[in-house]
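Example 5.3 — 3-demethoxyubiquinol 3-hydroxylase
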Amino acid sequence: MVGRIAAADDHWNFATRCEGETEEAGLYGTFVGGASCSNDCAMAVGSTPERGQNRRMTQISPTRLHSPLDRLLVEAQRALDTVFGNPPAERPNPAADTPDVVLDPEQRRHAAGLMRINHVGEVCAQGLYFGQAAVARDVHTQHHLLEAAQEETDHLAWCADRLHELDSRPSLFNPVWYAGSYALGALAGLRGDDWSLGFVVETERQVEAHLDEHLETLPQNDKRSRAILRVMKIDEARHADQAEQAGARPLPAPIPSAMALASKLMKTVAYRL
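Solution (predicted structure tokens):
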């Protein structure tokens, strides 16, 4: 009996280590050829091969090792980190080597309003991607969404840093923006991965458009904000292109218009609050 308990403990510890390995690898593991984890980890938590069969890597869903309560806690932590936390960027701030300049009060107020809008945009992107990933049916689609979400975390951190430099703050309505975007992402994901990716394409194209608008209206001497927005625009375009290549479904005409209207409302409120 003692031997059985010890063996069970060993297997549990090994499986737990494997779960940690996938998360530490970034975004629940790196998927190569439709699988995640190392061979040993995959075989530890996957099915046991039948006698006479060769062992092979088992495809593992990023959430298969989590109970519903675990997943709920993960999503709650993501929401708290996005809305109230200060998640660190994995990449260097594009404005790090750009000297700051003194803006007059009106320029500073306008730049802060625009960067607050961009910060809200990243909060919404996090909510959308996490909502979609939570219900994604295909592991590769889920991985794509979580990978994009990580880059959006970089944008979130950069915008937050710039707001701090401008002596300003994020939007007071960030919890509302996140909750609405998460619900929209989950609803899109429930329609199917192609619909989910279609929302990614439309969202990123609209974000590209408003980044262009901000680059035109920012104070000309606010080079730090401009450096951040230029890199963000490149990332958003890549996310849209990748979603199209992954099989995004074009959205029916009323949906993009409704999204643009909601975005206009968000920008009007976030500029001031």
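Remark. Residues 1-65 form one domain.
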